[in-house]
Amino acid sequence: MNQSLGILGGLGPLASAEFLKTIYECNLTALEQESPKCILYSDPTFPDRTDAILGGAEDIIVNLLVRSLENLCQMGVSRIVIACITMHYFLPKVPVSLKERVISLINLIVEEVLNTEKPHLLLCSKGARQAGIFQKHQHWQYIEKYILLPSEEDQDILQKYIYQVKMNGCVEPIVDHINSLFGKYKVDTLIAGCTELHLVNKHLMLSAHNKNYIFDPLISVAKNLGKLMLM
Fold this sequence. Notes:
By secondary structure, this protein is an alpha/beta fold. The chain has helices at 13-27, 49-55, 58-74, 96-99, 105-116, 126-131, 140-143, 152-168, 172-184, 197-205, 217-223, 225-230, and strands spanning 4-9, 37-42, 79-82, 120-124, 147-148, 189-193, 213-215.
């Protein structure tokens, strides 16, 4: 693969670092030299995305996002993954030339629901939910009937655990909570609508006793990187 993938990370740092590791876990070849070329641009100084959305301080995020995407493009990347789903809320305000480079995690989630046509419980940040990031997608009308959202109580619990994962990478408490949601909402598929859940999903994938399924768009990118780089 001659093209380079850019990763805008640091949002939080542990999730984007784990995503880079996942890319190589899914794409190592007999020759190390044929593995994907990636540039991780990890910038944890971005203000909190949920706070910015709920507090109306969007311009600061947009300006930082544009600058970061431009920096990655100047490094010669062909495509870019923004390792923060809430950050996708700001993409409509980004110049088209930059936006076209981005592999949308929202698009991958929508495609998964369209292809499976079964109920999914969508787990995302409070900011993403209140901003209606998924509801603003052009195909929302086709997937709406397949999407369940947690109760306000469960959303608040999830938000607390997401920030714990951001701070210390500890996934055990949120794993127990997430496992309880399969039965509570009577679904067999959850959607990782927050990239911190990538850490949780990797933990669950290593469990021999785990039978539940989480659709994780970062796993999807890693497994389909060659095709996505050509799009």
